[in-house]
Amino acid sequence: MKDQVKDLVEMTIPAKAEYVGVIRLAVSGIANRMGFHYDDIEDMKLAVAEACTNAVDHAYQGTSGQVQVAFQIYDDRLVIQVTDRGNSFDVAAVKARSGPIESHLPLTSLRERGLGLHLMETLMDAVEIDGNDGVVVTLTKFIHGDEVDRDVDSPAKTQTHR
Amino acid sequence: MNVSIQEKSDSDKVKTLIVEGEVDAFTAPQLREKLMPLCKDSREVYLDVSKVDYMDSTGLGVLIGAYKSLRANQGRLILVGVSPRLSRLLKITGLAEIIDIEDGA
């Protein structure tokens, strides 16, 4: 029964930048326990931090709030869900702007933000964003990514539910 | 979850900043505060990242800001001691194409 959540770990942090590091430590601990390789763990730490940072930056815009992080542990994968109940955003518009830096573009068009989603999509096996009521980002990483049969393309496809 | 930043002036126009620790949403503002003033009137800014164990898009954003500021005055941003991990992120984001990377620390 590969499709049953074996264990669930839930954490709630204040929507403040200084707590994102705590979530990275949790990712590291849980993924390590599950037997992920070092590089995959580092990838997940970064992707989850990007999701949390987005929540901290955009969700509450100065007002206090919380970010919930749920780690769903399966036999073959780790699914991490980052939820905030703050401002929703236009997922389609953000996705349209997502991507690597294009070196042929003029200096002034270089963005200092907006690389987060691109990193998440590249580093995870699947990324799902639901922007209806607050924002829910669901990140999936398979253990031994290459050996497991999976129905997602690489780099990850983002599915959007509006 | 901390960062430490040390400045070394090689000359008036050539500066080195040694960064150590984790550069994330919490610590990136400290890096920006130290780095941006150097970019205003330097010809070359070397950023030694050999002791950086973690950097995410907020840190990369600071690098982009520094690069833009330096380029506006024909200056250069040079990364020194880039780990395989950071190198991968620079490639994924396309930053490796625009920022100078020097081998060895």
From TrEMBL, chain A:
Pfam families: HATPase_c_2 (PF13581). Keywords: ATP-binding, Kinase, Nucleotide-binding, Serine/threonine-protein kinase, Transferase. Residues 13-141 form the Histidine kinase/HSP90-like ATPase domain. Its EC number is 2.7.11.1. CDD domains: HATPase_RsbW-like. The keyword Nucleus does not apply. It catalyses: L-threonyl-[protein] + ATP = O-phospho-L-threonyl-[protein] + ADP + H(+); L-seryl-[protein] + ATP = O-phospho-L-seryl-[protein] + ADP + H(+). It is an enzyme of class 2 (transferase). It comes from the Bacteria. GO terms for molecular function: ATP binding; protein serine/threonine kinase activity; sigma factor antagonist activity. Negative regulator of sigma-B activity. Phosphorylates and inactivates its specific antagonist protein, RsbV. Upon phosphorylation of RsbV, RsbW is released and binds to sigma-B, thereby blocking its ability to form an RNA polymerase holoenzyme (E-sigma-B). NCBIfam families: PRK04069.1 (NF003144), rsbW_low_gc (TIGR01924). Belongs to the anti-sigma-factor family. This is Serine-protein kinase RsbW. The gene is rsbW.
UniProtKB/TrEMBL annotation, chain B:
The keyword Amino-acid biosynthesis does not apply. Keywords: Phosphoprotein. CDD domains: STAS_anti-anti-sigma_factors. The keyword Phosphoprotein applies. Pfam families: STAS. Residues 4-105 form the STAS domain. InterPro entries: Anti-sigma_ant, STAS_dom, STAS_dom_sf. One of its GO terms (molecular function) is anti-sigma factor antagonist activity. NCBIfam families: ant_ant_sig. This is Anti-sigma factor antagonist. The gene is rsbV.
